Amino acid sequence: MQPILLIVFLPLLAAIVAGLGNRMLGNTVAKSITTGALFISCALSWPIFIGFLTGSAEASVVPVLTWVQSGTLSFDWALRVDTLTAVMLVVVTSVSALVHLYSWGYMDEDPDQPRFFAYLSLFTFAMLMLVTANNLVQMFFGWEGVGLASYLLIGFWFKKPSASAAAIKAFVVNRVGDLGFMLGIFGTWMVFQTTSIPEILAAAPGMSGATMSFLGIRMHTMDILCILLFIGAMGKSAQLGLHTWLPDAMEGPTPVSALIHAATMVTAGVFMVCRLSPMFETAPIALGMVVFVGAATCIFAATVGTTQWDIKRVIAYSTCSQLGYMFFAAGVGAYNAAMFHLFTHAFFKALLFLGAGSVIHAMHHEQDMRYYGALRKHIPITFWAMMAGTLAITGVGIYDLHLGFAGFWSKDAIIEVAYARGTELGQFAFWMGVFAALLTSFYSWRLVFLTFFGKARWIESEHIQHSVHKTPEQAGEDTTGGYHPHESPLTMLIPLGILSVGAIVAGQVFAPYFLDSEAFWNGSLFYNEPLMHAMHAVPGMVKYAAFIVMVTGLVIAWFAYIKDTSIPGKFVAQFRMVHAFLYNKWYFDELYDVLFVKPAFWLGRKFWMWGDVGIIDRFGPNGAAWAVMQSTGAAKKLQSGYLTSYALIMLLGLVAALTWVML
Amino acid sequence: MDGFPILSVMLAVPLLGAVACLFVDAKTARMVALLATLVDLALGILLWLNYDIGGAQWQFTEKAAIFAGFQWALGIDGIALMLIVLSVFLMPICILASWDSITKRVGEYMAAFLLMEVLMIGVFAAQDLFLFYIFFEAGLIPMYLIIGIWGGDNRIYASYKFFLYTLLGSVLMLIAMLWMVNEAGTTDIPTLMAYDFPPHAQTWLFLAFFASFAVKMPMWPVHTWLPDAHVQAPTAGSVILAGVLLKMGGYGFIRFSLPMFPEASAQFVWLIWGLSMAAVVLTSLIALVQHDMKKLIAYSSVAHMAIVTIGLFAFNVQGLEGAMMVMLGHGLVSGALFLCVGVIYDRLHTREIDRYGGLAINMKYYALFFMLFTMASVGLPGTSNFVGEFLSLAGIYQANSWVAFVATTGIILGAAYMLYLYRRVAFGDQKNADAAAMPDLNLREWLMLAPLALAVLWMGVYPESFLAPMRADIAALDARLARAKPEGDAHLKMGEPREAAANAIGHGEGHGAGEGEGAGHGEGHGAAPADAAEGEAH
To answer: DSSP strand E in A304-419: where?
Structure first.
């Protein structure tokens, strides 16, 4: 038995057992089965990854089952394992296993736990199918499967109208991207007559001079195909324009946000571009689009993140922004750097989300950072875990000593490589990346300072008021309201600890492989060695740029949220318009509501009442009925007896006609 | 199976059952109907198992002259086989669905259903043009009765509309058939499928057949009978209507219009594409604003059937196979969705969406089934509808990218209206006390839904079982259509491949490349990794 089969199908099996067994099994059994399956998958995944690190493993494909054969269009179920897959395997199974464990504590009071754990495992299965895909259609299967799991988990607390609305939004917005993905698959198959990824990648360079038409537009074939596929990636990875679902997805339980909306599913788009990197390298215009969209998302999301109050939304926008980094890295040709950031980001962003979950858990479900403060002493382990995550995401490190947290290695590499690429778009991405790094540092430290430092502002929170049965007036001077935050249980702290280790050392340990080793990648993505050399040779100022903006962001945040807490208020008063624009997320939701949602319903009503009822029925059947009634004047007669006479006449007529024809 | 007239037996069993039902009490009638449909299901499975894939095109043929060249000629190919299997699979489920909910004139009701089954199998098995016509048109009668007698409050209007629409097309089709028989001198369908009618005549013949099939399909704008018929029909009536009767239109196109009039089919390709595109967008938007569950699913059926016509008129193997798979998948899934509506209608006696809510709390397994069928309807990979939709759309993409684009927007709109429906029924708070008190599925309902769920997943994960019997027939049809195939709009033109990858940087390029040991060796790294094809293990 190939280990990859167990890795992929154990979570599916666990999901089915826990999901269908539900009440009959009871909470503990369902939780043990799913969590156990994930830990086994995880334990089997690491040896594969280590095999690729040491160079002893070979890329392989394990066939599973025939899927579809239709003329020349055929695709099978098969599991591909190469370096790129191995990286994703450890990311997905490790974070998923830890999130399963964490959920034992976080979801402890939920009445519906087997369902939750079944969904988590189902998600993991779909994600694993995605990353092991050897053809585009299986990738699409995983793609839609994770979409389904995401939908189910965002809407897990389906009694809340906001949760079920967010779930639909996530699915439908993703489907807009899927439209591009599907058309991309159709086009790719039409051009290459195969959906097998290795075959497409091998044939792509030969097609780089070809042109074709799509919707009347004539362009280079490869540009058309890659742009369509990239639109799919934009949907899943919440890039500018198709990002609106991700912040709303925070309606789901926090472990879900950590697993799906930070570490794994949202990075599927980046994975897809990297998986198809030799194909994208034949499509310069599509790559330009990747760089532009990535850089624009990176800066857009960071600006919005600076103004949000909900702790999870800040991290959600941060995720969106970091995904932008990964995309522009891929767009300038540093796919390995994109994958490296995907890898480190998975650890520190999962850590930040789970840390935020621990804070929310301690603060009686309050998510608004305005009502936090001074939590450092009360939940010290959570605090240090969040510190590790923040140090990692802001990219703290010292260049000259080659010492730093995870983000220092991966994010700084992306900023440098954008500069090193030397094109105008590369420059644009570089500057956007640097500015976004400043904002990243600012909003990350803002989060830490608002949550863990300063004065306790807990009693303002309705959740806390419910808990302590006091109003702010009754509490008086004591702004804690007498509430005692408790550190989370061990099941939640262990994942925080493990992920903290990842956030601290993942960059340091793996940088030589991910960034500088063509042998490690072994052809599983387009490794651009000259670009990597150029990256190491950028001018000193570029190398220090990220460090400088990181410190600047920290200092600004410190001034505004510790030194003089009146600064943010004054700033908002001064720049009301700018703040409102950012706070309202650049008004994307409002715009889409006016452009798409409202017109869809309006058109639906019009087509129905005017079109179907008003025109078709009125002049069609009703009109005919009216005419018939006018002529016979006896509607009742029409109804009764007509049927049998119809049948009879039909039969007689047929016989007569036949006889006439045949004789 | 040599010599055993299995098709005639499959027609005779429900016919005898129907007669028997008329003379017994309600309880016995139910049992007789269930037994007859189960026997037919067993025969259907036998038929499938004995169907020789790769064997003769027409199998299980029977022939007996009746009079004046009018023949009792039966026989099936892979396409007909699959549709017959679908029909006999859905019938016992329909009987179960009517078990408790039909209380008046049970014997007649069961008889109507069994007669319906006879006629459905007859349509797919007929090899004589007029035999087909009789089955095809007579199918109206039991459905008319089912809606008109056992339907909802507005059943007379609905059945009347249904009748009027369908009548319109059939007269024209009959005239066309008479002309064809006169011209070709035979009523044998296989012979006619290979007969080359003169192109100018094809135009008129095509339009005459189109009038009938477009209504049956139904295509926009002759679809308005469907929502009313569904809303008024009893649950099982809706299941058969959506599951099998709608497939007769598609079957008509694939059996008559395309092989008999290939030139005319190509000539009218934009008519079909245009109406189908309109259907996908318009009826999906209409589905979005429905308050009545059955109406919503009925409109979604129109949109799905448009994918069928788009696939059929893509003029290639993928489109044709995709269209067949959509028909089969939609037969299961829309049938299952109507059953899902029926399950809660039986409890609360309303189809008003707003009267429900929060069913995922008190009807967990119901919510699970409903979710599965919703996702299948949305075309999630791994379910039956994905395979069909994917192949149809892949097929049409080769023919025309505009049509492919517009048709593919159906996946967005479909997700919107189905998930919106699911949200209002199963999610949210339990705002209605009576809906909150409804019990979860009982054994009978499990027996209805579980086989459908398994079939939906089977067709999604391993569609080869369904594609294999049809493969040779579709290939033959594709070959016949080749001469009329419209040219695709992609116009792929090869050009000189680029020397290097887009992000390849050479000597002196890129910032900082000049400094230090920088970007030295640019040459060899241009092209894709040479070993990209490694790992091709099969």
So the answer is: 397-398, 403-404
Q: What is the pLDDT of residues A525-563, one digit of tens each?
A: 999 888 988 888 888 888 888 889 999 999 999 988 888
Q: What does pTM read for this prediction? A: 0.91
Q: What percent of chain B has pLDDT over 70?
A: 93
Residue pair A141/A161 in contact by the 8 Å Cβ criterion: no
In sequence order, the 6+-apart residues with CB closer than 8 A to the CB of B411 are: A175, A178, A179, A182, B378, B379, B389
For residues B487 and A399, the answer to whether their CB atoms sit within 8 Å is no
Question: What pLDDT, on a 0 to 100 scale, did the predictor assign at position A661?
Answer: 56
A233-254 pLDDT tens trace = 999 999 988 999 999 999 899 9
Query: Is the four-CA dihedral B451, B454, B460, B466 of positive or negative sign?
Result: negative
**Residue B517's domain spans which residues?**
268-538
Distance CA B254, CA B323 (A): 9
Angle between helices A406-421 and A424-452 (to 10 degrees): 160
CB–CB contact A198 B415 (8 Å): no
Q: How far is CA B351 from CA B63, B93, B112, B171, in A?
A: 47, 21, 24, 35
Structure tokens at A128: 């694993």
- Backbone angles phi and psi of A206, in degrees to 5: -65, -20
Measured CA distances, A628 to A262, A623, B164 (Å):
65, 9, 11
Say what the pLDDT of residue A635 is: 44
Residue B302 C-alpha, separation from nearest chain A C-alpha, in angstroms: 13
CB B116 within 8 A of CB B138: no
At residue A648, the pLDDT reads 59
> What is the distance between the alpha carbons of residues A48 and B332, in angstroms, rounded to a whole number?
42
CA–CA min distance B118, chain A (Å): 17
Domain count, chain B: 1
Count of CB atoms situated within 10 Å of the CB of B9: 12
Q: What does the pLDDT read at residue A642?
A: 53
Q: Which string of DSSP letters, residue by residue, matches A221-267?
A: HHHHHHHHHHHHHHHHTT-TTS-THHHHGGGS-HHHHHIIIIISGGG
Could you please report the per-residue DSSP string of B394-438? HHHHHH-HHHHHHHHTHHHHHHHHHHHHHHHHHSS----HHHHT-
Residue A643 in contact with partner chain B when CB distance is under 8 A = yes
Of A185, A526, A621, which is closest to B225 when you measure between CB atoms?
A621
Q: Is residue A43 exposed (0-12), middle (13-18) or buried (19+ Cβ within 10 Å)?
A: middle
Whether residue B450 is contained in a domain is answered as yes
A635 versus B471: the higher-pLDDT residue is: B471
Residue B465 lies in a domain: yes
Q: Examine residue B131 and state whether it is found in any structural domain, yes or no.
A: no
Within 10 angstroms of residue A587's Cβ, the number of other Cβ atoms is 12
Residues 398-427 of B with CB under 8 A from A: 398, 401-402, 404-405, 408-409, 411-413, 415-416, 419-420, 423, 426-427
Q: Interior CA angle at A510 toward A505 and A516, to 5°?
A: 145
Looking at residue B517, what is its pLDDT? 37
Query: Is B445 part of a structural domain of the chain?
Result: yes
Q: Under an 8 A CB cutoff, do B464 and A158 touch? A: no
* pLDDT tens, position by position, B490-499: 888 888 888 7
Kindly list the distances between the CA atom of residue B210 and the CA atoms of A53, B170, B203, B377, in Å, as whole numbers in the listed order. Answer: 63, 10, 10, 27
Task: Tell me the mean pLDDT in the region B283-312.
Answer: 93
pLDDT(B508) > 70: no
pLDDT, chain A, mean = 88
pLDDT of residue B535: 36
Nearest-10 crossing angle of helices B293-312, B410-426 = 160
> Each residue of B345-383: b (16+ CB within 10 Å) or e?
bebeebbebebbbbbbbebbebbbbbbbbbbbbbbbbbb
Query: Which phi and psi angles does A77 have, rounded to 5°?
Result: -85, 125
